[in-house]
Specification:
- The protein has a 7-stranded parallel beta sheet with strand order 1-6-7-8-9-10-11.
- The chain has 15 helices and 11 strands.
- It has helices at about 5-10, 25-35, 50-60, 145-155, 165-175, 185-190, 195-205, 210-230, 250-255, 260-270, 285-290, 310-315, 335, 340-355, 375-385; strands at about 65-70, 95-100, 105-115, 120-130, 135-140, 180-185, 235-240, 275-280, 295-300, 325, 360.
- By secondary structure, it is α/β, with parallel strands linked by helices.
- It has one domain: Alpha-Beta Barrel (TIM Barrel).
Length: about 400
Amino acid sequence: MTGRERLTKTFKREKTDRMPIAPFLYYNTTYEMFDYKPAMDRFFDPVDFDPVEKFVEYCDYFGFDVMHTLGTNWDGWSANWQPHTFAQRSAENWDVTVVEEGDEDSRHKTITIQTPGGELRQTENKKRSSKYLIVAAIDEHMLKTREDFEIFRKYCPPMDNIDCSLIRRARKAVGDKGLVDSCTGGVINVMDAYRKLDQIFMDPYLDEGFFREMAEFFLEWIIKQDKKMIEAGADVIEFTANLTTSTVGPDFFKNFVLEYDKRLIDAIHQMGAFVNYHNCGDSMKLLHLYNELGMDSFGYLTPPPFGDVDLDKALKILRPDMVLRGNIDQVEFLKTATPQQVRQRVKEVVQKIKKRGNFILSTTDFFFDETPYDNIRAFVEAGMEYGVYAGNQ
């Protein structure tokens, strides 16, 4: 059974030979394996190195079933990554000026957008957190007021004006080894790329009509972009929902998140892709509501101290036909444990969930730099040994 067949059957809740082994992965692990230091402005698509192809080589080295997350339109749902993202390219009535200061380890960027209706401004910081990883954060958001949103809504470029070349390249690179797992955002996550999160969480109580106008606008935005991503070759949409965790509480989630997430999931299904719902943080208080969303898969069952998931309790709450991913901590455990401890932890997780099935062996998010390769091998070997389904031993 090929990786593509195994993962596709798992997402369809069909019988497979074993549990797929497909941890969520990011650029840094591929760069680390090949000792490539990406430039600040070319982190996602270097000119002298192909992380899309090398990602598959990385997976082959360890024996993973490939879930290719680098096949993503990174500027389609996040304002703070590339130097020329969706909202940062000039267009008719949308005159963009970008000023950057700093070096190859730290940059500060100011984006000013002139429109007939007024000016929008956003500032962002990018830092090299390691030789192989660059992170970014917005410190002044574009949509500070309702007036800013009205300007943005009226003059921003077409929502589906995005570059899906990385997705097409990933589809070609993956072949029959797995699936293209393209990352996108839920409504709250995408709104957070343009408006401060604390304002977003207060908006429903201060002006619910305004909140819902923004939510509807960004929902349409995401659906149009996801359509282009699926047409380009995305098999799975990795739907980020990590900003609306247990912290927001079930009432907020039910009243102001669930409707939009469900409509987005339904739209993705209608366009022919699977959905992996990505919450790598706290989720126990929301699990009963996740049953209403209709996603194919939920990741990443993060246990304490970096999440709050009790796997035994979660398995009693979540609908049995929902595919699950994760529960192996990569922040501390995978970096500091012995290979034998890793094997034992994988064995415990697999044995708890094996009878239920519908499971993809994964960590709770991407591997950190300097994760011991012996531990990754132990992770895979244990999955191969204990994840075989009855009748295939």
